[in-house]
Design a protein that fits this description.
By secondary structure, the chain is mainly alpha-helical. It has helices at 3-23, 57-85, 145-170, 175-200, and strands spanning 116-117, 123-124, 133-139, 203-208.
Length: 212
């Protein structure tokens, strides 16, 4: 494992360990308040994991920090995936429309997958390029079959989780299952967005001259 990753993990543990120790001495759990089953069939307290009935503010703070760190890790994972798994290597050409090379190099002109062609036949991007900003590298979208498969599977997952959420709402209304189905649905939507960006959008790198 990379030393930098180990250092980050140690820093996180150094912060969470004393915080969690303080949180363990918070408010005691309260008693459950159950719904009269003779009146209603919903069972919001049912679940597959035993959880405390009440959390102290310190415990809530620890949970929030853990959730934020998990979100940061997920964002880092998706970012690395988009830049390594589905994007071309720096300087590597990609086939654009008509089989032409779709890479713009230091000259600032892109060839292939034309948007607007100037008098010399070079492809330009007037909505990006100015006197102080120019295109350094351009790769057309790969449109790979893997992207279609990923988006198709994630679409099915999104619909499935949405249907499960709706069925749970109309029946037992169990809180834990609500959370799992909502998490699955939003993560599937996130995967759809990432897949579309990675496989079906061109990669454009620009350089800009700035005065300091």
């Amino acid at each position: 494992m990379d030393r930098r990753a180990i250092a980050v993990v140690l820093v996180v543990l150094a912060v969470l360990a004393p915080t969690w120790f303080v949180a363990m001495h918070g408010e005691p759990p309260s008693e459950e308040i159950r719904i009269d089953q003779s009146v209603s069939e919903i069972r919001p307290l049912d679940g597959f994991v035993d959880t405390p009935n009440k959390l102290s503010p310190a415990q809530v703070g620890v949970v929030v920090w853990v959730a934020l760190l998990a979100l940061l890790g997920a964002m880092a994972f998706f970012h690395r995936f988009m830049n390594r798994a589905a994007r071309p290597d720096p300087g590597e050409g990609a086939s654009g429309g008509g089989g032409a090379e779709a890479t713009a190099t230091d000259g600032g002109h892109a060839t292939g997958s034309a948007e607007v062609a100037d008098a010399d036949g070079w492809t330009t991007f007037p909505w990006i390029e100015t006197d102080y900003r120019w295109v350094v590298e351009y790769h057309d979208a790969s449109d790979a079959v893997e992207g279609l498969v990923a988006m198709g599977g994630l679409t099915v997952l999104t619909i499935t989780f949405a249907a499960l959420f709706t069925a749970e709402y109309l029946t037992l209304a169990r809180t834990q299952y609500f959370g799992i189905y909502t998490f699955g649905m939003f993560m599937s939507l996130t995967g759809l967005t990432v897949s579309y960006y990675a496989w079906f959008m061109p990669h454009v790198e620009v350089a800009e001259r700035r005065d300091h």
